[in-house]
């Protein structure tokens, strides 16, 4: 496994427990601040450096987190209000090639993450164990997924990309 690509390893599913739920919900709530802290004092040249050869720049990573987590929030809301909805997959690489990624400062996506994660956490924090078993269908992977599994994946996802930023900082002694 490539350390630059998976600095915290790949996602590992964990069965439901109050302890794991508490950890994963904290990951959702505090991600925006952790991303902001990881980026502290980086200049534009550093922000436009890829975290690995062939990887996205840190600038792209931040915008990707906002794009991805907007989709995640919507997926949770759909699964909580509909019976096993089929979600809309999207091509994250093509989204990262759109012009807004180049011209919008990362502060916009960081602000978006703060607001989005506050709403997302508020939506999730009081779900029952039964609600965590609600499902959605992902046509891209052809899988039925529980909200519990999705929570773990997105808690990991935020830490995964924050680790990309920290990996590059450490590698380059920034």
Account of the 3D structure:
With 174 residues, the protein is mainly alpha-helical. The chain has a single domain, classed as Up-down Bundle (Four Helix Bundle (Hemerythrin (Met), subunit A)). 61% of the residues lie in helices and 5% in strands. It has helices spanning 18-39, 44-47, 58-81, 92-95, 99-103, 106-124, 129-132, 147-171, and strands at 135-138, 143-146. It has a two-stranded antiparallel ribbon with strand order 1-2. β1 (135-138) and β2 form a beta hairpin. α1 runs antiparallel to α6, α3 (58-81) packs parallel to α6 (106-124) and α3 packs antiparallel against α8 (147-171).
Please count the helical segments. Answer: 8
The number of domains is 1
Mean pLDDT: 97
Q: From N to C, what is the helix and strand string?
A: HHHHHHHEEH
The general outline is: globular
CATH architecture: Up-down Bundle
Oligomer: single chain
| Percent strand | under 5%
Please state how the strands of the largest beta sheet are arranged side by side.
1-2
- Briefly, what CATH class? Mainly Alpha
